Amino acid sequence: MKKTENQLLVIFGASGDLTARKLVPALYNLYVEGHLPDNFVVLGASRSNLTDNQFRDRIVYNSNYLKERLAKKSKEHVDNFAKLFFYQDLGDSYDSFYGKLAKRIADLDQKYRTDGNQIYYLSTPPQLYETIAARLAEQNLNLQFEGWRRLLIEKPFGTSLETAKDLNVGLQNYFEEPQIFRIDHYLGKETVQNLLVTRFANSIFEPLWNRNYVHHVEITNAESVGVEKRGGYYDKSGALRDMFQNHLLQIVSLVVMEPPIGDAPEEIRNEKVKALKSLRIMKDDKTLFDHTIRAQYMSSTIDGKKVNGYREEDGVDPDSKTETYAAIKFFVDNWRWRDVPFYVRTAKRMPTKVTEVVIHFKKPHHQIFQDEQMGEKANKLVIRIQPNEGILVKFGVKVPGQGFKVERANLDFYYSDLVETHVMEAYERLLLDAMQGDATLYARADEVEAAWEFVDPILQYWNTGKDVRMYGYSAGVWGPENADDLIEGVGFWRNPGDNLTDDPGFCVIC
Ligand SMILES: NC(=O)C1=CN([C@@H]2O[C@H](COP(=O)(O)OP(=O)(O)OC[C@H]3O[C@@H](n4cnc5c(N)ncnc54)[C@H](OP(=O)(O)O)[C@@H]3O)[C@@H](O)[C@H]2O)C=CC1
Ligand SMILES: O=C1O[C@H](COP(=O)(O)O)[C@@H](O)[C@H](O)[C@H]1O
């Protein structure tokens, strides 16, 4: 096990949802699994007026997110975990009180011997990221004399190419790029990382992973929930910014990239950037019109219950033009992928929650068996990111009996079969990596900018193009019918079920 050095973690926005829902539970898992260093403390910071004990009550003792896990534990076990947490009130803004904060950090560092190593986790509204970095620098908290200093930034990282560039420059005024860790929680998912292993630790897939054998690539990210309580944020964001620019393009980069020369963070990140830079940017209105679809969910009844349409959700403008569904077709301009279409879609209020990558292989180039549906039975590799994580290969077998009738069979592997292995949750993996200084699973500045470069023209076209349509789809179906047009030339969307082996066949979108 890699050693984690003594350190102090400062969380800005510590009174917020992410801290309680994801960060503290992730820290708890690290605590239980023995991954935390001997000397380790967490200092929560935000404007809310809380004492250390009130903060501990809120995020540990009274936490809904830890309740089940703590229920069977001894008081001593829970107290020892709670004692790791402290709280610093930042007054009424994130622009002052940094002298006090610096003093508190120095005191805790000395008392708990955290060796001057500090992580600053920014879990606040994004407009505060640069201000916080600047104020930390004013107190010399960015300087690495006696220990190291790292800055962790939550998404969203900018809202356009221009704002992402500005934010990169803004942060780099105060912190060096190797100190900056930009979170994309999809990279913390084991199955996303497994894309690298599937491709580069096996000799059976990689030789086929190119335009000679791959017919098209399909990536689906579907959520059954709507915007829940985040309507205010989501209405300014939309599916393209919220999921596609970051999480889905990260997955795309892992599918598209060339083999790195080793597993060092910079080797992998260099290849991912090259992959993102090779995505063909859509420039003309015709391509943008033909290759992109956006839509919004409309009210409907699911399992006998009425479900709000997007425009009826709290915090959403009743005339909103924000998409909750985005489907994009694109090409990759490099030697490996030339002319292979990629189809990527993401949406809320779909029939189920699922994320998967499907590599559709070409038919055998000479057809020996006279099976009319042979085309629909071409090989597929399905990489299920969530849920029921696993890998499925679909291949043709002979149906017993006379003649050569071909049917599809499955070869499947489920992560859950690896019973002894504890699969770390995304935030747990990412926090531990940052604590150990491993940036492999964090997005680099040029990576984020390359992703925005691809997305920006689509957003601009959607905002200003005169022919752009906003389709509707009833909550609980697989998006608008018009999304069929996008993929029509190659088949139909694979609308998967809950299980990896559910075989939806080639169903037409509802
Ligand atoms: N929640 C989630 O699931 C996810 C969140 N994120 C990102 O993480 C960050 C934090 O999100 P989340 O915890 O959900 O947000 P919350 O609104 O729940 O919490 C943010 C915290 O920041 C503080 N804050 C400071 N200034 C403001 C302000 N002007 N308006 C609102 N809050 C302010 C608040 O604490 P106080 O008032 O005490 O200062 C608040 O507790 C955001 O950047 C978000 O985009 C990313 C992925 C998922
Ligand atoms: O970043 C985000 O991700 C979640 C989906 O994450 P998952 O791990 O549950 O797949 C999404 O609901 C949210 O809108 C988005 O901001």
Short description:
The chain is an alpha/beta fold and 510 residues long. The chain contains 15 helices and 17 strands. It starts with 6 loop residues before the first strand and ends in a 23-residue tail after the last helix.
The end-to-end distance, rounded to whole angstroms, is: 49 Å
Q: Could you say which small molecules are bound to this protein?
A: NADPH dihydro-nicotinamide-adenine-dinucleotide phosphate, the ligand O=C1O[C@H](COP(=O)(O)O)[C@@H](O)[C@H](O)[C@H]1O
Strand content: 15-25%
The percent range for helix content is: 25-40%
Largest sheet: 9 strands, mixed
Uncertain residue ranges: 506-510
Name the CATH architecture of the largest domain.
2-Layer Sandwich
Question: What is the CATH homology-level superfamily of the largest domain?
Answer: Dihydrodipicolinate Reductase, domain 2
User: Strands across the major sheet, in which order?
Assistant: 16-15-14-13-7-12-11-8-17
Briefly, what CATH class of the largest domain? Answer: Alpha Beta
Remind me, CATH topology of the largest domain? Dihydrodipicolinate Reductase, domain 2
Tally the helices. 15
Overall outline: globular
- Number of structural units classed as domains: 2
Q: What class, by secondary structure content?
A: alpha/beta
Radius of gyration of CA atoms, rounded to a whole number: 24 Å
Strand segment tally = 17
Q: Mean pLDDT, nearest integer?
A: 92
